[in-house]
Write a structure and sequence with these properties.
The protein has about 120 residues and is mainly alpha-helical. The protein is about 80% helix and about 10% strand. It has one domain: Helix Hairpins (Orthogonal Bundle), CATH 1.10.287. The longest helix has about 50 residues. The chain is rod-shaped and about 75 Å long.
Length: about 120
Amino acid sequence: MQNISPKIQNQLAMLQQIQQQLQTILSQKNQYEMAVREAKRAQEEIKDAADDAPMYMSVGTVMVQKKKEVVNLKLTDKVETLELRIKSLEKQEKMLQGKFEQLQAQIKSALEGKSAPSAA
């Protein structure tokens, strides 16, 4: 590691940072996708319920009774919001993936270029 130039060491550190950011984004994306599936499942469950059936929503640590249409509307809003967040994360993921691949190629070419003369 000592014979690697400071520039390449810096690029390797940046590469690790990008990799960590990608892992964070993927984790958030998975959480949002799971929340979307749960909300859609809840919508499916209440679809068959009678319009006057008692429905409850969690508000913080309290359960509050709401009308079916209010619960369905809140779930729809939640799904739309989460899907927008997922799209945003996908854009960030794509951008970081491009940076990662570009930086990885730069490091690879720098290391290959450096090791070629020393092997000769």
